[in-house]
Amino acid sequence: SYELTQPPSVSVSPGQTARITCSGDALPKQYAYWYQQKPGQAPVLVIYKDSERPSGIPERFSGSSSGTTVTLTISGVQAEDEADYYCQSADSSGTPFIVFGTGTKVTVL
Amino acid sequence: EVQLVESGGGLVQPGGSLRLSCAASGFTFSDHYMDWVRQAPGKGLEWVGRTRNKANSYTTEYAASVKGRFTISRDDSKNSLYLQMNSLKTEDTAVYYCARGLNSGPDLLPAFDIWGQGTMVTVSS
Lengths: 109, 125
Known about the structure:
heterodimer, A: mainly beta, B: mainly beta, 0% helix, globular
C-alpha cells in the first residue's frame, strides 16, 4: 500500500526555520496537503495543492515540492507552532484513497 | 459559522455496532464530498472513507481496514453525515472525525478544510 514517510520529530528555537519533509513515490503525480494538530484538537489545514495557503493561515507557513519529496517550511517559528504536523496525499493507483503521513512532532525549544 | 459536530460515540463490545452522526452547518452541505478520519489514542491520522456528492452519484470509498464492516451515508436534506460501524474490533478504538472535502474552484480535491471536534469510540469487553 502507498505510504508517506515523515521524520518523527523536529526541534527548533523560536525565530528560526523549521522544515518538515514528506516522502512518497506518488508525490510527483499527486498534490500534497499539510495539517497542523495541537493536543486535544482537530487537525487544521495549513497548506493545500503543495504550496497554497488557506485564508487565515499565517504567511510563515509555506510548502514546496521536488520529485518524491514535499516540504513544509515554518519561517520565524513561534511557540504556538508547537504541534504535530501531517502530510496527506491521494493514492495514484486510480482509486481516490486518501493517505496520511506518519506525522512529525515539532518542538519549539 | 461553518461547523461540523459529531455525535454517537461510546463504549461498545467487540463484535458490536455503533452509528456515528455528523451535523453540518454554515455551508452548502450538498456541494461537498464528506469523509470520516480516525485517530487511535497516541497514534496518527487514518482515513476511513468518503461519500461523494449528488453530482457524483453519492458514491463511496473505504479504507481496506474497514471495507465490508463500515458504511458511510449522508442525508443532504438534514445536512448530516453518518458512519454505521458493524463487527467492531478492538483496533477500531479511536477518535472519529468527520471532515469536509476541499473544494477549490471547480476542483473537488482529496483533502479536508473543515473538521469536527471528534467523537470517541472505545471497543472493549
